[in-house]
């Protein structure tokens, strides 16, 4: 007798999420304690099927649905059959449900419809832990750190992530002990973020987190002057800044006199205030410093000089005209 063969689709439904229907698979994982639905691609017939039969491992009858339903005792209250399509929901999964599932549909007319798929039930993956440094002061370009991700039970995969993106070996990142240990050498300021370790098996996944803080700087010092042109008898403010973590402390040096703070204010510029001002940024964690020199000049002198030259030039032009 000729048979029409149909591979049944297996759809995992867990935590309210459905992976989709009508997709043919050879093997699909199930979560212990969860549910699965074997969903076929059968189109509901005009006339009801004569019989729908589900078996597992070729020997155990799950349900035979004809004029009445015959259900194996171990499956009572655990299954729901859709007689229109042959789909079968199986609930409260255990590892004893592992096996090959066979579907036989006898239509009112035509050949039998057969389907086969496999189910593999896995326990829920354990929640991992990360040995995360909390007291170490990590300094950019100087220190290294190793993060260890541990989890008991069956784990088929372990993935390290940074900023929600998987990390790959290379550059400053290395993996050891089958991915259990992530080594960062040396640390960079971009590592001041959250690292994730995600462990999984075919049916579930869990994640552990570790947040790092990497200290750096100070970077290049910047000095701004307000107003940009200094004029005698007027107020001038010098502001010093530098990117740093933690925030840098600042000192100013002028004529061998030290002033603490990022802002240096001259309430009324006099001749004695003109000259070189040195700002030094210091990071107490990295023990690094950066400096810059800013020269304060009297812009009004340059303007006066320009005006004098213009006046002189004008007078010379007038004299020349008279001579002519």
Number of domains as seen in the coordinates: 3
Please provide the count of β strands. 29
Helix content: under 10%
> In angstroms, what is the radius of gyration?
39 Å
Which CATH first-tier class of the largest domain would you pick? Mainly Beta
Tell me, rounded to a whole number, the average pLDDT. Answer: 85
Poorly predicted parts: 1-24, 302-315
Shape, please?
elongated
Question: Mind explaining what this structure looks like?
Answer:
This protein has 324 residues and is mostly beta strands. The strands form seven sheets. Strands 1, 4, 6, 7, 8, 11 and 12 form a seven-stranded mixed beta sheet that branches. It has a five-stranded antiparallel beta sheet with strand order 3-2-5-10-9, with no helix packed on it. A hairpin with a 2-residue loop joins strand 16 and strand 17. The radius of gyration is 39 Å and the shape is elongated.
Task: Compose a concise summary of this entry.
With 324 residues, the protein is mostly beta strands. The protein has one helix at residues 299-323, and strands spanning 4-5, 9-14, 17-18, 27-31, 35-39, 51-56, 60-65, 69-71, 79-81, 88-90, 99-106, 113-122, 129-131, 138-139, 145-150, 157-162, 165-166, 173-176, 181-184, 194-201, 204-211, 214-215, 222-226, 236-241, 249-254, 257-260, 263-266, 275-283, 288-296. The chain has one helix and 29 strands.
List keywords for this structure.
mainly beta; 7-stranded mixed beta sheet; 29 strands; 324 residues; Immunoglobulin-like
Q: Layout of helices and strands, plus pairs?
A:
Elements: E1 4-5, E2 9-14, E3 17-18, E4 27-31, E5 35-39, E6 51-56, E7 60-65, E8 69-71, E9 79-81, E10 88-90, E11 99-106, E12 113-122, E13 129-131, E14 138-139, E15 145-150, E16 157-162, E17 165-166, E18 173-176, E19 181-184, E20 194-201, E21 204-211, E22 214-215, E23 222-226, E24 236-241, E25 249-254, E26 257-260, E27 263-266, E28 275-283, E29 288-296, H1 299-323
Parallel strand pairs: 1-12, 4-12, 14-22
Antiparallel strand pairs: 2-3, 2-5, 5-10, 6-7, 6-11, 7-8, 9-10, 11-12, 13-15, 15-19, 16-17, 16-20, 18-19, 20-21, 23-24, 24-27, 25-26, 25-28, 28-29
């Amino acid at each position: 007798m000729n048979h029409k063969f149909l591979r049944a689709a297996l759809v995992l439904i867990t935590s309210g999420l459905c992976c989709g229907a009508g997709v043919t698979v050879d093997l699909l994982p199930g979560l212990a304690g969860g549910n699965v639905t074997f969903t076929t691609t059968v189109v509901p017939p005009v006339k009801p099927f004569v019989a729908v039969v589900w078996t597992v491992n070729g020997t155990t009858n799950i349900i035979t649905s004809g004029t009445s339903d015959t259900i194996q005792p171990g499956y009572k209250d655990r299954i729901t059959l859709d007689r229109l399509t042959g789909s079968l929901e199986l609930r409260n999964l255990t590892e004893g449900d592992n096996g090959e599932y066979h579907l036989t549909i006898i239509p009112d007319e035509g050949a039998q419809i057969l389907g086969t798929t496999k189910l593999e039930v896995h326990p829920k993956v354990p929640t991992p832990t990360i040995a995360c440094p909390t007291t170490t002061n990590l300094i950019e370009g100087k220190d290294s750190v190793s993060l260890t991700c541990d989890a008991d039970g069956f784990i088929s995969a372990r993935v390290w992530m940074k900023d929600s993106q998987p990390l790959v070996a290379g550059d400053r990142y290395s993996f050891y002990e089958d991915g259990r240990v992530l080594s960062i050498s040396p640390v960079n300021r971009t590592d001041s973020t959250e690292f994730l370790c995600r462990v999984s098996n075919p049916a579930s996944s869990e994640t552990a987190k570790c947040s790092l803080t990497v200290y750096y700087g100070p970077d290049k010092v910047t000095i701004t002057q307000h107003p940009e042109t200094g004029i005698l008898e007027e107020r001038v403010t010098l502001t010093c800044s530098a990117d740093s973590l933690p925030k840098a402390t600042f000192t100013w040096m002028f004529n061998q006199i030290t002033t603490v703070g990022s802002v240096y204010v001259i309430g009324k510029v006099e001749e004695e205030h003109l000259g070189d001002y040195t700002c030094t940024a210091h990071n107490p964690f990295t023990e690094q410093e950066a400096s810059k020199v800013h020269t304060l000049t009297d812009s009004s002198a340059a303007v006066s000089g320009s005006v004098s030259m213009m006046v002189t030039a004008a007078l010379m032009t007038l004299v020349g005209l008279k001579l002519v």
